[in-house]
Amino acid sequence: MADLDLSQILDQWPHEPGKVQVRLIEGQDGESRIQVRLDLGIIQMQTEGRPDGQRPRGFDSLLEFHEARLDEHTAEQGSSQGFVLSPEECRDLKEEAAQFYRRYTALWVLEDYDGVVRDTTRNLRALDLLSKFASTESDRHEMDLFRPFITMMRARALASQALRDNEAKAALHAIDDGLEQLRQHYSSTGQEPGFDRSSEAATLRSMRDALVPKLPVSQKSDLRRRLDEALKNENYELAAILRDELRLLES
Question: I need a surface site. Which of 77, 150, 154, 183 has the fewest CB within 10 A?
């Protein structure tokens, strides 16, 4: 049993309180692994597929299994009506989503923005599935509380990808889209005032404010064009965002 003692491994990577400790290592099979140091140990995750390396029902994840079930049901019945996720299936999907949450927060620290976009997009799909097909009201709404955070992380990762490629304009568009998705979420749930108080929206606004000075002056005309289009389409929420960006750029 002494061979199972992890003390030496933990001692070689001591825990530092208040610091997010993440590293990428090579496994015995030559494949990469993500490790996160916690106060009581180390979490290790796969970089691809399901973080724990499992393939439930032969699929890369339970989400993909249930999405395949939904596709089969829709093909047979002609619609998704009647497709339901049981409380046990919802519980398992939530636990799986938590694994992907742990991984994309670790990937953010590693500046693997492609991975963050992949895993946040995947978790948004899980939220959509639960909100539409969970059999109980609590399961339909419980996970949706995390939608603002996931949306914000995805927008930040997309913007960071663009900045890495020196595409400030694309980064700004990613943040705009993230803010619009947040606005729509709070509006659809009848919590319009929540958007202005949202810490996730504040984070994206702060990132956008830092980006505006990086835009070349030639982007003014593009912002004005997008503003005109938003007004023409009566998308006043987006128009307000674009108007603020134009004002900041001109100042």
Answer: 77
Region 48-213: CATH code: 1.25.40
Per DSSP bridges, beta strands 32-38 and 21-26 are antiparallel
Model confidence pLDDT, tens digit, residues 141-193: 888 899 999 999 999 999 999 999 888 889 999 999 999 999 999 998 888 88
* Position 219 confidence tier, pLDDT thresholds 50, 70, 90: low
pTM: 0.82
> Mean pLDDT over all residues of the chain?
91
Burial class (CB in 10 A: 0-12, 13-18, 19+), 89: buried
Are 49 and 55 in contact by the 8 Å Cβ rule? The answer is yes
Dist. CA 66–CA 53, nearest whole Å: 18
Task: Please choose, from the candidates 88, 192, 204, 210, the residue with its C-alpha nearest in 3D space to the C-alpha of residue 150.
Answer: 204
Question: CA-based angle 222:224:227, to the nearest 5?
Answer: 110
By residue count, the chain amounts to: 251
User: CA-to-CA distance for 85 and 144, rounded, in angstroms?
Assistant: 16
Q: What is d(CA 204, CA 178) in angstroms, rounded to the nearest whole number?
A: 8
What does the alpha-carbon distance between residue 57 and residue 66 come to, in Å, rounded to a whole number? 10
Helix (H, G, I), strand (E, B) or coil at 189: coil
Contacts for 127 with CB less than 8 Å, ≥ 6 apart: 97, 143, 144, 146, 147, 150
Residue ranges covered by each domain of the chain:
6-47, 48-213, 216-251
